[in-house]
Each structure stands twice: as C-alpha cells, then as structure tokens.
Amino acid sequence: MDAVLFLNTDGVDPETIWTRVESELSFGHSVWLSGALVASLTRRYGVQRDGCAWIKLTPPKTQPAWLYRARDVIVSSSALILLAPLFPLLALAVKFSSPGPVFHTTTVIGEARQPFVWRKFRSMRVMPREEDEATRREQFRAYVEGKRQGKVIDVTRVTRIGSFLRKYSLDELPQFWNVLKGDMALVGPRPCLPYEVEMSPAWAARRFQVRPGLTGVWQIAGRARTSLVEGLAMDVYYRYTRSFGTDLKLILATLPVIFRGEGGE
After folding, report:
1. pLDDT digits 0-9 by tens, 193-224
2. Domain extent for 98
C-alpha cells in the first residue's frame, strides 16, 4: 500500500508545506491537504474525510514534452484560423469604444522567469503608461496586503465593450499567438507582471517551473474572486498535479465558465 501523508495547512508557512509536498511526492508518496491555503481548491476538487475537506496530490507520471507542445500547436493554430473573421470585428469595437490602440501590450514573466510580450484586446480607457503602471502596482500591493479581494482592476476605467470582452474572456484571444509561438501553453499558471513577481512570496516561484497558460486551475476554481495566496497556491498545486489528462479536464471545464461569463471582470 502506498504511503499517504495528511497535512493541515492552517498555521503553517506555505514554504514549509510545499517543500514537504515536493519531498513526499518525490518518494512516491501521496499527500492530502486541507486548510485555508487550499480552501478554494477543496471547494472545487475536494473530498470529505472525517468531517474535513481535502485535496489529494499523487506522484506525477512522466509524460513527453512533445505531447503537450503538439497539442498546443494544433489547437492554437486551429483557433487562430477559425477566429480570424472575429478578430477584425472585435478590433473595430475596441477602436470605437474609446480613444487608444486596439491592443493592450505588455511584458510578462513566463516559464523560468523568461519575459515575453503579450497582447490583449484593450478593455480599459487609456492613461499615461507611467501613471497606469504606478496605479496598477499600488492596486496589486493592496491585493498582496489583503486590503482588497479578487482581481486587481479599476472598474471605473473599463469601457462598455471592455466589460463584455472581459466577462467572456474575449480580450485574451490574441494570446493564442503566444501559445503558437511557445511562450505559453493552453493550460498552466497565468503569466504575471514583473512587479507582481517582486511582491509575491518566494514559495510561489514554483509556478515558473511550468509554462504559463491561457487557462488553468486559478481561472477555473478562483476566477476573479479568490485571494492572492489562494490563487498562487492553485498555481503551485497545478505544477505538482500537471498531466495531459488533467489539462484536458481543465480545458473542458473552461468552456462553460467562459460561456456563462463566471467570475470575469
């Protein structure tokens, strides 16, 4: 019978938790987690044992990298071809919604902390770049310090068409190009801005051990409503549970979430 470890995360430093998880999995042991750190995960994926909700992590099975990459190339190229007629319509809608460019372009951090440029359909009114970054940085700092809950966004700047694009994640369609290029995968942790890396806890760096994705655990289990610590825990959880089968389940779970506009802001 495989060795099993039960860990309650309450009152324990997350670095200690994930170091222990990594060690146990490397020895072929299964790990069950409960507590506030994984509360959103247990609500979505948990099972009840002895009156407590737990999530299970099992030793990963090695799968070839080419399998993931082949999937990403096939799906992203197909999506770009199928969505090609929609892109001009969205671009026109954004252009006429408010003065400014069609795309919001920025540099984000991906696998192995490598920066790359990504684009989204612009959903907010334009402000000077330095002022915009300073505002976003302070909003994220408040998120880190627990002074605000959920996605860091100034809703007063979101345009009418931008609100629609965000609700149904249409603003992120250009990122299929990043998937095709290899900057991103279909599934993985979300890329983050440089200042987000600076302000995030050290234990969250495990998320950079896999390629960032268009969708992932945080997007499905948390969307815009979860706390930063829980969200980062979801990214780390994905890093230790990643498999081709798990990715397929997350992709399939993404579709109804997007179509219903759940949690997008």
Report:
1. 999 999 999 999 999 999 999 999 988 886 55
2. 66-259
